[in-house]
Amino acid sequence: MHATENASGCALGCQAVRIHRRQVDAQRFNRDAILPYELRLLDFQAAMQDVYDFFFDVNGFLAVKGLGRLEDTLRKAILSGMLSDMLTASMAAHARTLVENQQHNGHPDLVVKGVYSGDAVKAGAEGVEIKTTLKKGGAVDTHGARDQWFCVFVYQVDNVTEPAADRDPLRFTEVYLAEVTTADFRRNERGELGTRTATLHADGVAKLRRSWVYLDLVDNRPGPGS
Description:
Helix content is about 25%, strand content about 20%. By secondary structure, the chain is an alpha+beta fold. The strands form two sheets. The protein has a six-stranded mixed sheet with strand order 1-2-3-4-5-8, with helices on both faces. A two-stranded antiparallel sheet has the order 6-7. The protein has helices at about 10-15, 40-65, 70-75, 75-95, 200-210, and strands at about 100, 110, 125-135, 150-155, 170-180, 185-190, 195-200, 210-215. The chain contains five helices and eight strands; from the N terminus they run H-H-H-H-E-E-E-E-E-E-E-H-E. The protein is globular.
């Protein structure tokens, strides 16, 4: 028997736990943002909405089964990795000139269509690297300092509201896209068993934040020059 759906398209079981579909606020985009490779603000909006729709569908199904939300179940690192992969795939689907890098663990995540053989490159210069983080302001660790177009999606997860049925769905609060160089990074020293990483230093983070694409912060919303 098919599940009955309410007006929002969610099964009635979702309504009992107040699952709702989040919408991207188009008014929060920076109309003056400089976007490379024929990217459009609509590409970002569509990719973010794809993620929202996915979580709405999956959490609706989980709610019917009496299970917890996906974002409450996954570890932070796994959730961030999944979001990065989802956004990369969705951006590639909507963008005019960018496609997914077909090289496993290749860099960057999005490459310019037709520039590299089979659209696969281990370390390329033409494209956009996608990262996601819970850290406000977009300071995220990378596997190495590079000259690159660097895109960071900052998101929030409400995992403290009680009862859990009242929690808000995952929300993107910031998106940044800037052309950075190796000089904008600091190297993070790790122990013998740790993996070395690099993070934008203070000036590098400032450069990233000046190149904001989307801001939806409840408090302290920075402006274009912040």
